[in-house]
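Input/output pair, single chain:
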Amino acid sequence: MAAIAYRRRYHIHEAIGATSLNESYMISDPESGCGLAAVDEKTGIGVKIGKAFFDKSLLPVKLEMVSSEGSLILEMYQPISIIKPVFTVKSSEGRILCFLKSNSCFLKPFIEVLDEREQIIGSIQGNWHFNNFEFKDVAGKSIATISHCYGGFLREAFTTADDFDVQMLSETPDSSMAMVTLAAAIAIDVWFHE
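Output:
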């Protein structure tokens, strides 16, 4: 597992792309500011054009996370979805880490986290502002928090770019849960902040 998986805190910064129609994120250490990984969208030109006319959450999305050295860490894929979109998250070896399934209602964002056998391993629930999210395991123990960062009036009013802080809460680092949490933060941005 990549070194990024053993951290306790992360900052995710979405790039502002006025001329680009793809999603791009930088994951960094919030204390040192050092870049840990980049996440870039890898969808075709047809999907990019479709973003100008359709809600992004309805279109297929393929994202790849690569380390600062350029090696693949994980892949995320969401097919076309009318209701209840699902991201499949895979490791660099092609093993399914989890499925992230949106089960949100109008005022309550809710994501089920399923393992490769589609058994529930946790859930992510947000507040009605869609700004603060808590990831809990099936026993109700907190694993992590994902918080949307206010970017200032101009950025919030004129762009869809968002920043998030991620805090792992468990006493012992769980590398797979850290990767699931980072993938969930990206899914939260795609589903609720675009």
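The first helix runs from residue 45 to 50. The helical segments are 45-50, 153-158, 175-192.
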